[in-house]
Amino acid sequence: MSKVHVETRINGERMEFLCEPQQSMLDVLRDNLRLTGTKEGCATGDCGACSVLLDGRLVCSCLMLAVESGGHELTTIEGVARGDELHPIQRKFLEHAALQCGICTPGFIVAAKALLDENPNPTEEEIRFYLAGNLCRCTGYDKIIRAVQDAAKTLRGEAA
Amino acid sequence: MQSFAYAAPETVKQALDVLAEHQSAGRRVQVMAGGTDLLVQMRTLDGSPRTIVDIKKLAETNRLDVGASEIYIGAAIPGAELSASKPLAVCLPGLVEAMDLIGSTQIQGRASLGGNLCNASPAGDTIPALVADAGVCVIATPGGQRELPVEQFVVGVGKNALKPGEFLLGIKFKRPAARTGDAYLRFIPRTEMDIAVAGAGVSVTLDAKGVCTAARVAIGAVAPTVILVPGAAKALIGSSLDDKALDAAGAACSAAASPISDKRGTADYRRKVVAVLCKRATKIAAERAKETR
Amino acid sequence: MSEAQDFKYIGRRVVRPDGVDKVTGRANFGADFALPGMLYGKVLRSPHAHARVKKIDVSAAAAMEGVYAIVTGADFPKVGSEEITGGEGAGDFADLATNVMARDKVVYHGHALAAVAAKSNAIVDAALSAIKVEYEVLKPVLDLDTAMADGAPLVNDKLFTAGLKEKPTRPSNVAAYMEFKRGDIDKGFAEAEVVVEGTFRTPTVHQGYIEPHACVATINQGGQATIWCCTQGHFDVRSMTCKVLNLNVADVRVIPSEIGGGFGGKTTIYLEPVAVMLSKKAGRPVKMTMTRDEVFRASGPASATKCTVKIGAKKDGTITSMHAWLAYEAGAYKGSSMAPGAMCIFAPYNVPNFLIQGYDVLVNKPKVAAYRAPGAPQSMYACESVLDDLARQLKMDPLDLRLKNAVSEGSVAAYGPKFNAIGFKQCLEAAKKHPNYKLKLGPNEGRGIAAGFWFNAGMQSSAEVHINENGTVTVVEGSPDIGGSRASMALMASEELGVPYENVRVLVADTESAGYNNVTGGSRVTFATGMAVIQASRDIIAQCKQRAAATWGIEADMVDWKDGQAIPKPGVNADVKPLTLAQIAANAGRTGGPLLGRASLNARGPGPGFSINMADVRVDPETGKVDVLRFTAIQDAGRAIHPSYVEGQMQGGAAQGLGWALNEEYVYDANGVLQNAGFLDYRMPVASDLPMIDTQIIEVPNPNHPYGVRGVGEVPIVAPLAAAANAVRDATGIRIHDLPLSPPRVLAALEARKG
Amino acid sequence: MAKVLFADHLMQYTAGTRELELDGARFRDLVAQLETRFPGISEILIGKVAVAIDGDIIHDPFLEPVGPDSEVYFLHRIEGG
Fold first, then answer.
1. Are the beta carbons of C363 and C147 closer than 8 angstroms?
2. When you count CB atoms within 10 A of the terminal residue's CB, does the N or C end of chain C come out lower?
3. How many CB atoms lie within 10 A of CB C548?
C-alpha cells in the first residue's frame, strides 16, 4: 500500500507523517504520532471521545482522513494547557470533580473549549446541546455542565 | 489489485478528469465532501479499496450566495458554516435547522448539505427540507452542467441520480416569495444524536389575510425515499391553516407514508408521528411566513 | 463509631491525585499502551446466534504477507468444569474458556471462534475475511418464554436444572432454580384487604462504558507472560487467564492501566487469553482492542428479565404478603444475577409472609456480566412499581406506604440476616421533607418515587503505606481507580497520619507489586481497601511512636500521636520536643530503617445501602416521548469521604437507570443477530437528555468501618427504573409494564386507552 | 449456643434443616460440627457461600470469632459490579 506524506501543524508544532490514504486522523494521532490523549470510544462519530479542533473548528478525528490534515492546524487535548499552566476548563473539571473514569474527559475538554471560544456566556441548555455529541457514562453530566459554566465565568473574568 | 488513493482536485475539470480516468480504467472511485457518512460506511459496511476524490477544495462546492432572486449553496459547505450565515437563516430557516439537526457539533464541523443529499438515506434530515423548498441540484457532468429537482435526484435507498463521472456541485433555490416560510421537524427518541424516526419539511406562502396560497410538504423516513405529498399541500392551500386543514394535511402524510418497522421505530408509529410533525412544522412555517415580507 | 467524629480531611472536596494527568491526556488507558515490535490482533466472530462449527480453514489467511499468527479453539487447552467462586454470575471456568474462544459450537452472534495477529490493522482485517468457516446453523433461543417452554431448542443439551427438589430427568435451558420464603403467602394474601399484581419485563442492556476492552500481552519461551489491560480486577484477570490457558500464576504479571469505565462489565476476561496465545505463536507482543460493535456483541451485558410480583396489604398499608416470580436471562452460559435480584427484591420491607422464586435461564445471547448492583434494578423495578400501584389503590402517599413497612436496625432482612444500623427510614423522611417533593406539576407531567437497595461487598484488600524521607506518603494498593478512589485513599491516609492531603500520593500497583485485592466492584473499594489503608497508616503510627520513644529513651506506651507528630504523654519528665513525621522519617535510618506500614484484611460487614429516588417527567401525548424534568437522588452513604465523588456516583447511576428505563435495549432480529451494536442506535442518555440531578447524602455510619463508610457505587442505579416508570404512570394514568418506556411503546399505550 | 441458619437454597445440603444451635468460639468450629452432622457440607460452606455473623456479611470466613448468642446465617455470595 503506497503511503502518503503529509505536512501539518499539531498543537502549534510543524509535523510530518506518512500514512495510508484511508487511515483516520484518530489512528494517525494515536498509532503513528503516539498522541494518545485523543481517545477512541466508537470510531463512528457517536461518542466524541476523539474530539479535536481543525483550524479551530470542533470535529471528530475518527471521521476525518489523516491526509485531509495537510496544510491545516490541529489542536488536540495535549495542546489545550497553556504551557506550564492548566487551561481554566481543565482546572474547573478538577475542582468540580467533573470526571470519574476520565476516558471521555479529553473529548469533553476540547469540545468545551470550542464552545467557550465561540460563545463565552452559554446558557445551561446551550452547553448541554453543544456537548450532546460527547458521551459520558459515569457522571450523569451534572458536574461536567457545572464545570463548563464555572470555567466560562472565569474566562469572562468574573470572580468564580 | 486496486489500493486506496486520495485526490483533492482544485478545479471542477480536474475532479471530472479523475472520475473519468477511473471510470474508463474500471477502478473504483468515490466522491467525498465532509466524509462523515463515507468514513463510517468504509469502517462498518464496505472497506474495499477505492480512490477518494475530496471536493472540498473546489470554489463551486464552497460558494454560498444569497442573492436577490436566487440562492446557491455549495455541496461541500459544512453545517457549521450554513448555520452561521444570517442571510440564509432569514430566507430558508427550515433548511438551516434541518442541516443543524444532523449529528453532533463535531459532525456539523464536517458534514455537508451535498453529502447528506447524495447519501440518499430515506432518513436524511435535509432532504425533506430541500424538497419543500423546491431545491434544484446543480450537477457537474463531463459535458458541463445539468440541473435536476431534488425530488428527482433521490431515486432509491442510498441511490441518487448521478451518472458515473458526475458529481454534485451545489443546490439552488428561487428566493422565497413574500410571506413565505419553511420549517423542518423530525422525531427522535433522544434530544440529539439519533437518526430521524420520521421527518416533515413544510413550506407555505400566505396572502395578506393569512390564507395559504402555496405549499409544499415533504416527508422523510417513512418510505424508501423522501416523498413530496401533494395531498398535504392541497389540504393547506386555500385554508387559513386552521386545525381542520392541519389535520387533513397530517392525514394526507400518514396516507402517503409506506414505512417499515425496524430498530428505530414501528411502521404504525412512524405513520402516526409523521402527521404530528407535519402539523407542527406547518404551524412554525406559517409563523415565519407572517414575519417575512 | 459516633456521628460526632470530627475530621480534618475526611469530607473535603479535594482535587484527585490523578486528576491533572486525566485532564491533559497524559493518563494511559487500555488502548494507549504500546511495545516495540508489537503486532495487532483481532477476533473473528460468529455471524450466527447458534451454530455448530464444522470446519475452519485458515490457510488463505495464514499465507498472507504480514500475518504472524492465527489461533482457533483447537489451540486452547481443555478446561474442566469448576465453579468460579466470585459472586453472582461468575459461572464456570469451563464456560469462561469456551466463551473466550468457541470450540465446536458458537452460541451467540459475536462469539469468538478464531483470532489473527498481523503487522497492521489493515492486514488483520484482510486476513480475518480470508478465514473460511463452515457452519451448521441451529435454531436460536432468544427469549425467556421460548427458552422455558417445554420442548424448547436447547442452548446446551448437557445442562440440567440445579436447585430443584427432585432431580430433573431431562436437560433444560433453565440452569438453576432458587427459592426464598418466610411464613405462608396464601395465609398472608387471605389476610390482605388489597392485593396488587403485575408482570414486568426488562430488556437486555449494556453497561455502556466508553472505553472498549483492550490489552497488550507478551509471553516468552519460558511461559512467563505480562499483560497490560483495562480491568476492574487485575488479580482476577491473572487467575482467570491462568485457568483458561493452564499457566502458572507465578509466571503471569498483570499491569492495570487506567480504566475507562466498567460498571461490572470489566470484572471478567475476553481478549487477554487470546492475546497471550497469539503472542505465544507469533513470538511478539500482541495488542488487541475491541471495536464498539464487538463490545456490544461480545462482552457481557445485563440480563433481560420477566418478573411477576404480587403484594397484599391491609387498608392501613401494612403489607401482609409478597410473592415474586423472577426469570433472568444468563446468556449462552449459566450464571445470571438472578440470585442477588431475588435476595434484594423485598429487602427494604418488613413482611411476615413472602415467597421469592428465581430462574437462571440460558438463551443464545452473550453471557451476561455484572452490571452495577447486578440483578437488583430488574427485580426491584417490578416490586417498586407494584408498591406504587398499591399506594394508589390505598389512596396513600407512596412514601408513607414505604415508611409503614420499612426495615430498620434489628429487622430481619428478607435475604436472611438481621440488619445493623441502616438508613432507609432516614432516606424516606428526607424525601418527605425535600422541597422537590412539594413542587406543583403541570399538564401531562407526573412524579414517581421508588426505593433502591444494595448489599455492598467487603472482601479482600491489602495496602502499604510508605513514608518518604521528607515525611511525605506513598500509598500502594491494588484496586483499580475507576471513579476517584485514589482521592479517598489519600484522604483517609492523611486523616490517620495527620499529614496534608497534598503530601499523600496513591499508586495502584500491578499483581507483582501490590498485595492481593479482589475486584473494584460491589462498591467495596472505599470501604474495604480504605480500611486497609487506615490500618496500614495505624501501623505506621505505631512504628513512629516506637521510633520517637527510642529517640527520647522512654517507653513506647508513653508516646501519643497527634496532628502528624509524636508527643510524649503527660507525666513524661524528660523535656522532649514533639517529633513530626518528617523528622522521624529523616532519622529512620538511625532508628531501625525505613518506615513501611502494611495491612491486609478480609473486610466484614460492608453495611447495606438504601436510597429513595424522585423523578418528574413530561409525556408528549402526541408522540409518547418522555422528558425528564427533574430528578432527585437521596442515599445513605454511611460517611462521605469525598462528597463530590459520592454525588457523582448518585448522579451517574441515575443517568444509567434513566437510560435503562426510557430508551436503552438490545434489538435482535428473528435469527438472533443484534441490530443496534453501536452508540447511534443503542441510545444512552446524552447531555441534552437530562436535567441537573439533585442529590442529598444521608450519613448513617456503618459500625464496621472506622469512619462509618458504606459502599455507594451500586445503589444509585437501582431505583431510577421504577421512579421513572411510576412518574409516567402518574403523568398518563396508565401502567406500562415493559421497559424501555420508548416513544412507540408509550404512544401505543395512550392510543389503546383511547380505544 | 450460637444460632445457625441456612438460606432456603442451602437447605438441600442440610436435609431440610433451616436452623440449629451449635457451640463454638470460631466459625470453623461450627463448620466442623456441621460436617459431622451433614457429611460433605463443609466443602460447600467454605469457599462457596457467604455468611452473615450477627448481620455482618463476610466472604470466605474461617477464623471469625462467634459469640455465645451470635446469629450465623449462611447465604448466597454477593460480589457486585
1. yes
2. C
3. 26
Residues C466, C509: Cα–Cα separation, whole Å: 13
Helix C398-405 and helix C376-394: axis angle, to 10°? 110
Give all chains having 3 or more CB-to-CB distances under 8 Å with chain A: B, C
> What residues in C contact A109, CB-CB < 8 Å?
23
Match domain B180-291 to its CATH number in 3.30.390.50, 3.60.15.10, 3.90.78.10, 3.30.70.1520: 3.30.390.50
CB A155 within 8 A of CB A116: yes
Q: Using CA atoms, how far apart are residues C370 and C262, in angstroms rounded to an integer?
A: 9
* pLDDT grade for D43, boundaries at 50, 70 and 90: confident
Which CATH architecture fits B67-172?
Answer: 2-Layer Sandwich (3.30)
Chain B closest-CA separation from residue A94 CA (Å): 24
Q: List chain B residues with CB under 8 Å of A48.
A: 104, 106
Mean pLDDT (chain B) is 97
Q: Which three cell numbers stand for residue B72?
A: 446557491
Question: What values do phi and psi take at C391, rounded to 5?
Answer: -60, -40
Give tens-digit pLDDT for C311-347: 999 999 999 999 999 999 999 999 999 999 999 999 9
- What's the gap in Å between the CA of C484 and the closest CA on chain A? 6
Whether C347 and C339 have beta carbons less than 8 Å apart is answered as: no
**Cβ distance of C25 and A78 shorter than 8 Å:** yes
Per-residue cell: C578: 514533639
In this predicted structure, what is the pLDDT of residue C88? 53
Where do the domains of chain B lie? 5-54, 67-172, 180-291
The CA-CA-CA angle for residues C221, C227, C231, to 5°, reads 160
Cell digits for C394? Answer: 390505598
Nearest alpha-carbon partner for C709 in C412, C461, C371: C461
Nearest CA in chain B to A60: B106
Q: Which CATH fold topology does C33-138+211-260+266-298 show?
A: Aldehyde Oxidoreductase; domain 3 (3.90.1170)
Interchain contact A/D (3 or more Cβ pairs less than 8 Å): no
- Span C395-421, average pLDDT: 97
From chain C, pick out residues whose CB is under 8 angstroms from the CB of D15.
Answer: none
Q: How far is CA C25 from the centre of its chain?
A: 26
pLDDT score for B293:
54
Write down the pTM of the prediction: 0.97
Mean pLDDT of C642-671: 98
Contact criterion met (CB below 8 Å) for A97 and C644: yes
Task: List, as one string, the DSSP characters of C327-339.
Answer: EEEEESSS--SHH
Every domain of chain C and the residues it spans: 19-26+458-603, 33-138+211-260+266-298, 305-366+416-454+607-754
* Minimum mean pLDDT range among B229-233, C242-246, C412-416, D40-44: D40-44
